[in-house]
Design a protein that fits this description.
about 100 residues; alpha+beta; 4 helices
Length: about 100
Protein backbone atom coordinates (compact mmCIF):
# COMPACT_ATOMS: atom_id res chain seq x y z
CA UNK A 1 0.00 0.00 0.00
CA UNK A 2 1.01 3.59 -0.62
CA UNK A 3 0.08 6.25 1.90
CA UNK A 4 -0.24 9.93 1.06
CA UNK A 5 -0.46 12.75 3.59
CA UNK A 6 -1.47 16.02 1.98
CA UNK A 7 -0.72 19.16 3.99
CA UNK A 8 -2.32 22.10 2.17
CA UNK A 9 -1.85 25.56 3.65
CA UNK A 10 -5.50 26.53 3.33
CA UNK A 11 -7.23 23.31 4.42
CA UNK A 12 -6.84 20.60 7.04
CA UNK A 13 -4.37 17.83 6.24
CA UNK A 14 -5.71 14.58 4.93
CA UNK A 15 -4.29 11.12 4.60
CA UNK A 16 -5.36 8.48 2.13
CA UNK A 17 -3.99 5.38 0.52
CA UNK A 18 -3.73 3.53 -2.76
CA UNK A 19 -3.24 -0.20 -3.09
CA UNK A 20 -0.35 0.13 -5.53
CA UNK A 21 1.16 2.49 -8.11
CA UNK A 22 -1.56 1.72 -10.66
CA UNK A 23 -4.31 2.49 -8.14
CA UNK A 24 -2.54 5.73 -7.22
CA UNK A 25 -2.30 6.64 -10.89
CA UNK A 26 -6.05 6.06 -11.34
CA UNK A 27 -6.88 8.14 -8.26
CA UNK A 28 -4.75 11.03 -9.51
CA UNK A 29 -6.31 10.85 -12.96
CA UNK A 30 -9.80 10.88 -11.41
CA UNK A 31 -8.82 13.89 -9.29
CA UNK A 32 -7.60 15.73 -12.38
CA UNK A 33 -4.02 15.84 -11.09
CA UNK A 34 -2.53 14.19 -14.16
CA UNK A 35 -4.17 16.14 -16.95
CA UNK A 36 -0.77 16.95 -18.45
CA UNK A 37 0.95 13.68 -17.55
CA UNK A 38 2.08 12.92 -21.08
CA UNK A 39 4.23 16.06 -21.16
CA UNK A 40 6.02 15.41 -17.85
CA UNK A 41 9.60 14.24 -18.01
CA UNK A 42 10.08 11.69 -15.26
CA UNK A 43 12.33 8.68 -14.93
CA UNK A 44 9.41 6.38 -14.21
CA UNK A 45 5.91 5.96 -12.89
CA UNK A 46 6.87 6.53 -9.27
CA UNK A 47 8.55 9.83 -10.11
CA UNK A 48 5.52 10.90 -12.13
CA UNK A 49 3.21 10.13 -9.23
CA UNK A 50 5.41 12.00 -6.75
CA UNK A 51 5.71 15.02 -9.05
CA UNK A 52 1.95 15.11 -9.60
CA UNK A 53 1.22 15.01 -5.87
CA UNK A 54 3.81 17.64 -5.06
CA UNK A 55 2.34 19.92 -7.73
CA UNK A 56 -0.86 19.88 -5.66
CA UNK A 57 0.97 21.14 -2.56
CA UNK A 58 3.07 19.92 0.31
CA UNK A 59 2.73 16.21 0.90
CA UNK A 60 4.45 13.15 2.21
CA UNK A 61 4.37 9.77 0.49
CA UNK A 62 5.08 6.44 2.12
CA UNK A 63 5.49 3.48 -0.19
CA UNK A 64 4.63 0.74 2.32
CA UNK A 65 2.77 0.12 5.57
CA UNK A 66 6.04 -0.23 7.46
CA UNK A 67 7.36 3.06 6.06
CA UNK A 68 4.14 4.88 7.01
CA UNK A 69 4.12 3.34 10.49
CA UNK A 70 7.76 4.28 11.08
CA UNK A 71 7.03 7.84 9.93
CA UNK A 72 4.07 8.09 12.32
CA UNK A 73 6.22 6.84 15.19
CA UNK A 74 8.96 9.45 14.57
CA UNK A 75 7.49 11.98 16.98
CA UNK A 76 10.47 14.34 16.58
CA UNK A 77 9.99 14.60 12.79
CA UNK A 78 9.91 18.34 11.94
CA UNK A 79 6.83 17.78 9.77
CA UNK A 80 4.85 16.77 12.86
CA UNK A 81 5.84 19.82 14.93
CA UNK A 82 3.52 22.77 15.58
CA UNK A 83 0.39 22.42 13.47
CA UNK A 84 2.02 19.39 11.86
CA UNK A 85 0.44 17.27 14.58
CA UNK A 86 -2.75 17.43 12.52
CA UNK A 87 -1.01 15.76 9.57
CA UNK A 88 0.46 13.11 11.88
CA UNK A 89 -2.99 12.49 13.35
CA UNK A 90 -4.49 12.18 9.85
CA UNK A 91 -1.87 9.54 9.04
CA UNK A 92 -2.65 7.75 12.30
CA UNK A 93 -6.37 7.71 11.50
CA UNK A 94 -5.66 6.21 8.08
CA UNK A 95 -3.38 3.55 9.57
CA UNK A 96 -6.06 2.67 12.14
CA UNK A 97 -8.78 2.57 9.47
CA UNK A 98 -6.96 -0.10 7.50
CA UNK A 99 -5.92 -1.90 10.69
CA UNK A 100 -2.18 -1.31 10.46
CA UNK A 101 -2.27 0.34 13.91
CA UNK A 102 -4.51 -0.62 16.81
CA UNK A 103 -6.94 2.02 18.03
CA UNK A 104 -6.01 1.69 21.69
CA UNK A 105 -5.89 5.31 22.83
Amino acid sequence: MIFVVEMPRDAPPRAWFAYDEEDLLHKLVEAGALHDWSSRRCAGLRELLEASLRARGECRMYWSESEATAAFERVADPAWQGDGWRARWALREQLVAIEVLADDL
